[in-house]
């Protein structure tokens, strides 16, 4: 993929729309299981050489495997445990430079983990409490959800880079002025946000109901569409923006000083 | 879960219907990537201390992690690498005895791997060939698909056990007579099979199209519904039956000899 293809705003938008499907699917899968608080309680299960909760342990194991198949070489993947990754066993891919060199340092995963565990899990689970046989299944679904949400939120880096490339003068001035509010306004499109929420309601409805039961009394939504729209409104969209702003605020670290000087 | 709940045919059927959703979701996710033949080619990537293809290596790593969170203690989970599993780090669950003691020995996973790689992957992938950046992603999706299909097919053991419990005299006679055909006929319900296929077409359609584009020119099915129905018709349903028959043919190994003698 060429940088100009990756940074085409139409392509970015299409990728973001496709990620909604993955997130909705993953939340529907998670909804089969109890909320499973034991999974999120630090050191509830004594794990040798590990300090943390069960989900964190399981997620770390997955990242260790995935790092070996070079998941985190991809600029659109952001690990939860960047300091613990292993070397890939596949030959390296020389991705073209698309994002700024500090891009990996912008990592919202600890915030994602927090709102996911505290706000999302209790709302999408089919029932509150533990079901001992399903702690592993619940955490496996959690990992899918977390990875999908994390990819969506950190995709903000591509949006930010694309907007920066489109209008360097505007952004260089805003960044030099430290105008966080101005940057945020420039990347906010309320009409698009409203469209996302409307589309999520339809997707959650369409993917979350067994269509062969659509007109029966058993018709049941696996996850309430409002919960998914709310997840986006309250967490995913604002955190994506935060990633974009954080990325842009540092953007001059990776810009030609001569160009910057023209705007001082 | 009590054995009588697990072996209730209504509950088993509901679980099988729910698994369809998972399988359809997983195939839709796989369809984002190229067919990626390199992933399935033995020793295409030299992996230290491993003889096999890349997918097998990645799947083994996952099973090693999942075995530690006791996935394979559950009677409805069947590993692809049973001889290599690790010990769980969670306290063991004492599942009530539901299936016969030899149940773990009935394992159709090598057949599942074969038809999945040869027949399903080329048909659901968005394009034929390799896309180097996505070999890891493709194989991650493959693992989800394989595990979901394997769970569905081996669930036949519960169907078989439930049917055996419902009519021991019939099955003891058929088993003593080595009447494979009779056993197969007794577990076959063509009307139910036709319903499954019809429902899959509707599900693939409903879950595979972005509903906000349903009436637009961009309306696109991520996976052709006929491919998913065909997968069930040609592979999943026959292999489930094979699992059921294999399970039943050995069922007297775990029956009271006195009862068996009444039918000799």
TrEMBL record, chains A, B:
Quaternary assembly = Homodimer.
- Broadest EC class assigned to this enzyme: isomerase
Asked whether the UniProt record includes Cytoplasm among its keywords, one would answer yes
Q: Which residues form the Chorismate mutase domain?
A: 139-244
Q: Which GO terms describe its biological process?
A: chorismate metabolic process; L-phenylalanine biosynthetic process; tyrosine biosynthetic process
Q: In which pathway does it act?
A: Metabolic intermediate biosynthesis; prephenate biosynthesis; prephenate from chorismate: step 1/1
Subcellular localization(s) per the UniProt record: Cytoplasm
Catalyses which reaction(s): chorismate = prephenate
Q: Name one GO cellular component term.
A: cytoplasm
Q: NCBIfam families from the entry?
A: CM_pl-yst
Function text:
Catalyzes the Claisen rearrangement of chorismate to prephenate. Acts at the first branch point in the aromatic amino acid pathway where it steers biosynthesis towards phenylalanine and tyrosine, and away from tryptophan.
Task: Identify the Pfam families for this entry.
Answer: CM_2
Keywords (A to Z) from UniProt = Allosteric enzyme, Amino-acid biosynthesis, Aromatic amino acid biosynthesis, Cytoplasm, Isomerase, Phenylalanine biosynthesis, Tyrosine biosynthesis
Molecular functions (GO terms): chorismate mutase activity
Designated name of the protein: Chorismate mutase
């Amino acid at each position: 993929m060429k940088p100009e293809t990756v940074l085409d705003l139409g392509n970015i938008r299409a990728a973001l729309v496709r990620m909604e499907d993955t997130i909705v699917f993953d939340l529907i899968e998670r909804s089969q299981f109890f909320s499973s608080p034991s999974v999120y309680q630090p050191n509830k299960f004594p794990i040798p050489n590990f300090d943390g909760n069960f989900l964190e342990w399981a997620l770390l194991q997955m990242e260790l495997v995935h790092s070996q198949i070079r998941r985190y070489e991809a600029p659109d993947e952001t690990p939860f445990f960047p300091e613990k990754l292993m070397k890939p066993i596949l030959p390296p891919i020389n991705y073209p430079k698309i994002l700024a060199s500090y891009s990996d340092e912008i990592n919202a995963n600890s915030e994602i983990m927090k709102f996911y565990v505290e706000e999302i899990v209790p709302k999408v689970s089919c029932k509150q409490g533990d079901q001992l046989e399903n702690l592993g299944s619940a955490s496996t679904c959690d990992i899918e959800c977390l990875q999908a949400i994390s990819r969506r939120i950190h995709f903000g880096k591509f949006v930010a880079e694309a907007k920066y490339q489109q209008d360097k003068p505007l952004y260089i001035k805003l960044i030099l002025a430290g105008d966080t509010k101005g940057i945020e306004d420039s990347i906010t499109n309320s009409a698009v946000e409203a469209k996302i929420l409307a589309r999520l309601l339809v997707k959650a409805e369409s993917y979350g109901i067994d269509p062969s039961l659509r007109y029966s009394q058993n018709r049941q939504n696996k996850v309430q569409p409002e919960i998914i729209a709310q997840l986006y409104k309250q967490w995913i969209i604002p955190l994506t923006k935060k990633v974009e702003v954080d990325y842009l605020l540092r953007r001059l670290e990776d810009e030609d000083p001569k160009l910057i000087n023209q705007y001082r």
